[in-house]
Amino acid sequence: MSRKKVNRYIIPKEGTQEERLDLMLTQLDLQHIRSSYKNVHNRIKESQGTEFDFLESLCERESSQREENRLLNWTQKAKFPFKKTLEDFDFSFQPSINKRQINELRTCRYIRRGENILFLGPPGVGKTHLSIGFGLEAIYNGLECLFLQLDKLIDAVKKSDENTSPALLRKYMRPQLLILDDIDYYKTGGNASEFLFKLIKQRADEKLSMIFTSNKHFNDWGTLFETKVRAGAIIDRITSRAEIINITGGSYRLKGKKYKRISVRKSNEPVLTRS
Ligand code: ADP
Ligand code: MG
């Protein structure tokens, strides 16, 4: 919520004390103190607290409400496709994930150092869930985050032109953490490929963190950047300062469903069917 601009602060001389307080608290933008001071006063009186206890409780109320609003606002602005935290993640289902590495990343020090995270693995293993979990951790720590699915980014770039594309680039450069989800099957082509190259290069140069999720190993991301030279340059930039988390377990979507191996395809990939 943006703060209202006040040109002149007025000290009211008329009206009841309650009316005068209302006016000044509104003017000072202390809405939460305004709506709670009577209840807080009663509580402090009951507990025989001092005037300083009263003042402290009012400040606490204002701060906690503002923080709650900030979290809500920043979470909405991050445009997560769903809201799942790291607490919601069942790490025992994915033993390939190193819990110590997760706990270190949780501190968000990697963002302050401008490093990246890559979540790699097959569908359903929780890559998007973990990226959102880390996005929320960033927001709790006062760092802005934006979540983008690669196909949506490509659509937005395709709709932009010479005039609007710099604004789009600025928008994606702004948050301290940018999540690029599903770096998989897309062929970018034309201006989207160039835009993606510019965005990743510029974020890397300015030490702004990114989280990538992909079903494919980053060595196979070449098609996104059209030329091998470009792909190599960009992948180097991403991976030279990255924590790579390879999730090798099964899909959580299939959890509890029993499968048995019935045949082996030419590619040696097992074919699974429900038993
Ligand atoms: P991916 O991005 O790897 O395809 P998702 O993150 O979309 O997978 O996960 C699919 C669904 O399963 C989501 O609802 C996610 O919250 C849930 N999920 C995946 N892994 C876990 C897990 N280990 N613990 C709890 N929920 C999980
Ligand atoms: Mg996903």
Structure description:
The chain is of the alpha/beta class and 275 residues long. Helices cover 47% and strands 13% of the residues. It is built from 10 helices and 7 strands. The protein has a 5-stranded parallel beta sheet with strand order 2-3-4-1-5. A hairpin with a 5-residue loop joins β6 (259-264) and β7 (270-274). α3 (51-78) packs antiparallel against α6 (127-140). The chain is elongated. The model is unreliable at 259-275 (pLDDT under 50). It binds adenosine-5'-diphosphate and magnesium ion. Magnesium ion binds at residues 127-128, 181-182, 213. The site of magnesium ion has 5 residues, from α6.
Short synopsis of the structure:
By secondary structure, the chain is of the alpha/beta class. The chain contains ten helices and seven strands.
Largest sheet: 5 strands, parallel
How many beta strands in the DSSP annotation?
A: 7
Bound molecules: adenosine-5'-diphosphate, magnesium ion
**Rg value:** 25 Å
Shape: elongated
The string of secondary-structure elements, in order, is HHHHHEHEHHEHEHEEE
Number of helical runs?
10
**Which structural category do the helix and sheet elements fall into?**
alpha/beta
Strand order of the largest sheet: 2-3-4-1-5
Instruction: Please estimate the helix content.
Output: 40-55%
What percentage of the residues does DSSP assign to strands (E)?
A: 5-15%
Poorly predicted regions: 259-275
Distance between the termini: 54 Å
Average of per-residue pLDDT values: 89
